[in-house]
Design goal:
The complex is a heterodimer.
Chain A (H helix, E strand, L loop, with lengths): L2 E6 L7 H14 L4 E5 L7 H4 L10 H5 L5 H4 L1 E2 L6 E4 L12 H12 L4 E5 L6 H8 L3 E6 L3 H17 L1 H4 L6 E9 L1 H5 L6 H8 L3 E6 L3 H8 L9 H13 L15 H6 L3
Parallel strand pairs in A: 1-5, 1-6, 2-4, 2-5, 6-7, 7-8
Antiparallel strand pairs in A: 3-4
Chain B lengths: L20 E4 L5 H12 L9 E6 L12 H10 L2 E7 L3 H9 L3 E3 L22 E3 L8 E4 L4 E3 L8 E4 L3 E7 L2 E4 L9 E6 L3 E4 L2 E4 L13 E6 L2 E6 L1
Parallel strand pairs in B: 1-2, 2-3, 3-4, 5-7, 6-8, 7-9, 8-10, 9-11, 10-12
Antiparallel strand pairs in B: 11-14, 12-13, 14-15
Classes of the chains: A alpha/beta, B alpha/beta.
The complex binds adenosine-5'-triphosphate (ATP) and magnesium ion (MG).
Adenosine-5'-triphosphate (ATP) binds next to helix 1, strand 7 and helix 11 of chain A.
Amino acid sequence: MSKIIVVTSGKGGVGKTTTSANFSSGLALRGQKTVVIDFDVGLRNLDLIMGCERRVVYDIIDVINGEATLHQALIKDKNCEHLYILAASQTRDKDALNLEGVERILNELRESFDYIICDSPAGIESGAFMAMYFADHALVVTNPEVSSVRDSDRILGIMAAKSKRAVEGRAPIEEHLLITRYNPKRAEAEEMLKVEDIEDMLRIPLIGVIPESESVLFASNSGIPAIHQKSDVAEAYKDVVSRFIGEAVPMRFVSGKVGFLKRLFGDR
Amino acid sequence: MTTMTLAEPAFKIKIANLPLWVIHVHNNNMAQIKRQLASRLSQTPDFFSHTPVVLGLSAVANSQTKFDFTALTTLMWEHGMRLIGVQGGSTEHQAAATQAGLSLFPDAPLRNSPVFPDPTPAQPLPPLVIDKPVRAGQKIYAENTDLVVLAIVNAGAELIADGDIHVYAPLRGRAMAGAQGNQSARIFVQSLEAELLSIAGCFQMFEEGIPQDVRNHPVQVYLDEARLVIQSY
Ligand SMILES: Nc1ncnc2c1ncn2[C@@H]1O[C@H](COP(=O)(O)OP(=O)(O)OP(=O)(O)O)[C@@H](O)[C@H]1O
Ligand SMILES: [Mg+2]
């Protein structure tokens, strides 16, 4: 049975698209048939991070409007065998999305994919609602700052009340806390929230901590998600994928202590 | 253009249920009312600012005593209260109030009033029990009953109950018990970290943080003569 996973946050710019790109790549690298959908209509940039912007011919709105088939709109990822991308439109206005159209697309994708990743836009308006409505799981992307935690709390409340699962009284969306842009040293110096503080405020299971790192910026500029390179961020996203598919992996990158090998050979 | 078109009405009449303060008086001793009002309001001098209030006369409806409504209006004005009418009272009271330019509000029906006998003894309603976190932007209302929350109540969340409120986890949002005016309602909290506490409309906000002696403590909150008491235990 395929799973629909929304990557959401409420607050903007916290790392949803970065997470969608790396998480979907990570699942595909583990042999899972995966598709990642950009719901950020008007501001598409998943295709940039995945390095496929020049190959976007049709997008999700074209499929909803019946102007293209899913088959025509899906773009095969250049780095992973099992990964496909459904881009958002840059030119349409965001009201072009509608629940019936999204449901039709998801149902069709369920037939051929194991995992369907929905990259949500920021905010709590219709775009974010469409992205989470049909979800089975949610990766709640949170930065170690109060405003981000508060917005994550808000989106968790909305999912608990308004998702399809909630409306139909089925088992709720499975929630996973993903802390990104974490800097253990700054957290220890109390310049940022600590992992425990965020867990205490949100009270949902932690699936991973992604360190703050320049490698993310290099990766998005080169159009190859960080998970394909050698870095802490790549390791951290691989851990998240392992935990998601049920493997027990110890939490890394949460403390500021530098390991022995790292001290010998330096960062990166 | 100076002509007015009939198609555009200049006003619209709507009914509104506005919150209103009622000051229930127990006697007509002006000196005593004056003194007690001044002392009660001295701690929160800005609490009433041009706030409409109604004088509740139910408790003195059967007495022959007379009220000087004009003097009362002036006295209450000094405390920021705008006396707009009276509720209940005898026909003489109501006549005097009308004379003084005040409006008349019907007496609220009393729960155990013999005029409206309750055929069956009232069954207490079961409490509303919430076992999931109450998150920013969520509001929970326990109508005519108590509210019991077994999970965290986060900043930006709101609990409202006509009865008591129990939170067996940290309370970081707002809690309002006795929302319909029940002054004996209480709030019980396992760890007090709230943004606002209120009982029967008497509230306290914590913009400057919660006092050290009750912060993160288990507490109960109740009203003592319109004063909110936060007691840790
Ligand atoms: N772990 C990280 N370390 C450093 N920078 C990061 C990290 N994750 C994301 N960023 C940077 O943060 C910015 C926002 O990331 P991203 O676009 O993934 O966020 P988003 O939540 O999708 O934003 P939006 O709400 O606008 O869709 C980008 O510049 C990205 O490079
Ligand atoms: Mg994004």
